[in-house]
Input
Amino acid sequence: MAARGGGSFWAELTPSEASFVRKCRAIEVLFKAGVVTMWASWQQSYIDLFGGDSGAMAVHYGVTRTVMAIVTIVTEPFISALSDTLGRKHLMTWGRAGIVLFFAAHKFRDRSPAHRMFMEVFCWGVVQAGVWPVFAAAHSDLFGSRPELSSRIQAADGLWTNVIGAAGGVLTMAVNRAFGPTAGQEFCALTQVVSIVILQTIPETLAKAERKRFRIGEFLRRTNPFSNALLLFTKGPGLRRLSLSTLLFFCCNEVWATQTAFRMGVLNWVPMTISHFTSAYDLFGVVSQGTFGNRLLARMGNRASMEVGALISLVSYALQGLCMLPSGQAGQRTNIQYAIAISLLQTIPLSMKYASRAMVVKQGMVVYEGKVGRGQLNAAYSGLGTLCSIFANLLWGSACKRKDITESRI
Output
């Protein structure tokens, strides 16, 4: 077995587990490639829809995310509970089709903010709902009883997606020059078609003996988003403390929804500048995770990674907050300060999302002794984030709007 301190995990996997990890990594890399390629044209189309008003864009995006979160509260636990009964594979395939449908609809008709909101909510909040919790549940089927190994695998996957992100600017320009300024959106849809093909080669991870029998009363109970969330707070002090820290973690993460509006409205960046910065941001993540991040995660373990990551995140958000103080036009100092602050999140904090889910799911498996399915536990974990986003998106979006107005009056 590989030494724990070295961060290598391949020797700890069976051939079937290694194949699963490689195929899942390919799917995540394809998703990242699609997103970074379409992001510049997507942001430009969004700001154009509001006539260049970044504050109105931020509020609309916050409201859209809130409506999506409300819908997802219902659809996500339904899909996750269904995966505990029917298995993971087919539901993951169905969800990927939502992304293809979304960009197809956007390509042919995107004439108003209301239409964009509807398509985002329907395709991402209904069709695509449950993809990531079910995906995580499939991962938990194989590695849920080994949370340290699970975190290391996911952190390594994150390193590969950051590699793609670092190449995002070059990839975006290549696709746009070859096929047109909006080709990134079609490319993103294409990556999901390829992902669907790859999914068909992955064996089902949930054995039939472990599947939950379909009883309508029990099924409806398992799809109740509020009772799902309460699962993490009603049994076991360790699980409650982990869940509370996760709730705060999600609340902080939701501020990311305002980054585009902040960069365009306060820092005066254009979409291509944002694309290049995102590439540099991901490149820094590659360097940090490749040189010390993943090794520290393997040596420190999940709990210490969460504690150290939280302290570094505190410094990062404090520096970002100082960038938003009224100080006239954004200058070089503000841009440098912002770049340093945001880059701190690409060090130890980058592993927090992997460590957090692995610890919560593992603790839930122990506390409930197999009586609660892994799909339901992953849905409960994701549900905390969804419940938090209902309020956090409106809060951060409104704050960004007020900041945009303040800056415009200076």
About this structure: The longest helix spans residues 271-323. Residues 14-205+220-409 form a domain with the Growth Hormone; Chain: A; fold (CATH 1.20.1250.20). The chain has one domain: 14-205+220-409.
